[in-house]
Amino acid sequence: MNISDIKKQFPIFNNKIKNNDLVYLDSANSAQKPQGVINRVYDFYTKEFSNVGRSVHYLAVTATNLYENTRSSVQKYINAKDRNEIVFTKGATEAMNLIANTFGQKYLNEGDEVLITELEHHSNYVPWHFLRKSKKINIEFAEVNEDGEVTLDSIKKKITNKTKIIGITHLSNVTGAILPIKEIIGLAHSKGIPVLIDGCQSAPHLKLDMQDLDCDFYAISGHKMYGPTGVGILYAKKKWLEDLPPYQGGGGMIKEVKKQAISYADLPNKYEAGTMATAQVIAFNESIKFLEKIGIENIQNYEKELINYTVDTLKKNNSVKLIANPKNRGGVISFTMEGVHPHDIATILDEDGVAIRAGHHCCQILHEKLGIPATARVSIGIYNTKEDIDQLNSSINKCNKIFDLK
Fold first, then answer.
1. Which domains are delineated in the chain?
2. Is the pTM above the cut of 0.90?
3. Which pLDDT score, from 0 to 100, does residue 359 have?
4. How far apart are CA 383 and CA 4, in angstroms?
5. Which residues are catalytic?
6. If 381 and its partner were Cys, which of 22, 27, 287, 294 is the partner (CB 3.0–4.6 Å)?
7. Range 310-332 burial, b when 16+ CB lie within 10 A, else e
């Protein structure tokens, strides 16, 4: 695997940032796009554009076939049992809102409990909060330990006979912890509790096998997988999609409409109302091809080596305090520097073309638990190298000098 050749596929790295080469360490926020994905959007709009699933002319049939080809590719990539278990959404946020809304509408009543964790992104908390307001349910939080992990035992302690669903991240976007979700799913299912997994950070970096994990729902963000913005994936077991009510009403999701009754379309159209992000869905197929060509095992091995190098490098920098130390870590590292606000760190690094994220990363509950308002976050992608990390460290040392840190 030649990282230099891979990086050449990303045109953004041909540009200078403030007269510096771009060191992009913000892929947990959104990954950069290879030329093949960019070209696919352009080609669709210039050669093949039409709405899908409605007309029968050449362009409409072509667009529909391309759209459905992506569904088949996603099914294969995540090893779903049935292609109709793949629902396209506008993002992982909508996927999680879809489940919270439909599951909550049918199965949650006053006093019922939803179990999430202190690691969760707001996308896997706020939708449940809406139900707390409207249906008077309760939300319980499994605690994060000092290493930035949520263990099987912490989940077990919070399960009660009122627990109706568990929502949990696969890979934390702050601590980088990879959670033991297969074991958590097994525990939940032994008690008859379905599980929703937030896979935003895991999908670009880990091998996914829905039949092996056996989760009920899994949310994926396309733009974090080197794909376009505006497209997400909801994997849901067929039994749930058949059982739960529709999420939105409109064209494309109906079978028959009469003045007194409406019947809904077959899966997965039941959950894809209106005009979908057709170009983005079709281009997402190129993202999958990109990842498949490199090989997810190769990606995992390379990124593990690079993240270990990053941790070792930052640990040696006395001005840096790493946040958490998970035993099983993905490509995310958060840190602070005493006396320097994370936004100032990010601003100074930006002067050298080093792009990181600063803030609470849509995880305010976790930052409150940590007792800090914000962190600086480094997150890697397949285009990053050890030289990028060396430049990061050099730019952090520049912060030291500016703020006169020891």
1. 3-27+295-403 (3.90.1150.10), 38-292 (3.40.640.10)
2. yes
3. 93
4. 8
5. 362
6. 27
7. bbebbeebebbebbbebeebbbb
